[in-house]
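User: Could you check the structure of this?
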Amino acid sequence: MIRGDRRQRHLKILELIATHAIGTQEELADALAREGWTVTQSSVSRDIAALKLVKLAGVYTRPSVTRAPRRDADEQRIVEGVLSFSPAGDSLIVLHTPPGEANRVGVALDRLAWAEVLGNISGDDTIFVATTDRTAQRRVVRRLSGLVDHH
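Assistant: Sure, the predicted C-alpha cells are below.
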C-alpha cells in the first residue's frame, strides 16, 4: 500500500515512537515500510525535524514543552495535544492530535467552555469542534492559533 499524506504519516510516526524503541532514521523508515508507507531516509529526516522529535536515552520521543506551562491546565492540554487544525465548512473545526490524545484535548475544550463552541466529538486522534456560526468559527481558530504555535 502506498500512502503519501504527510499528516497521516506524521501521526503514524508519533504512534510508532510511542509504541516502539526507535533509535535511528533507518529504524523509523523500516517501521514505516512495515506499516505500508513508502519513504526515503531524507523524507524521514524531514519528518523528524517537522515533528521536532528528540532523542532521549537513545530513542526518538516527542519533545517536552519547552516554554513555561500555562496557568490553565486545560489550555496547557491543548498546547501539548494539538498537532494541527483547520476550519471545515461554516461552523466546524477539525483538530488532529497524536494517537490516543483526542479525548483528553476534547475534555479540555469542554472545560474551557468557550461561548462560541457548541461541543465536540473526539475520536482517537481527531476532534470535530462545532461552533455557532462562521464568525464564531473564525474566533475559535484565532484562539487556537494563539495557543498552538505550530499550526
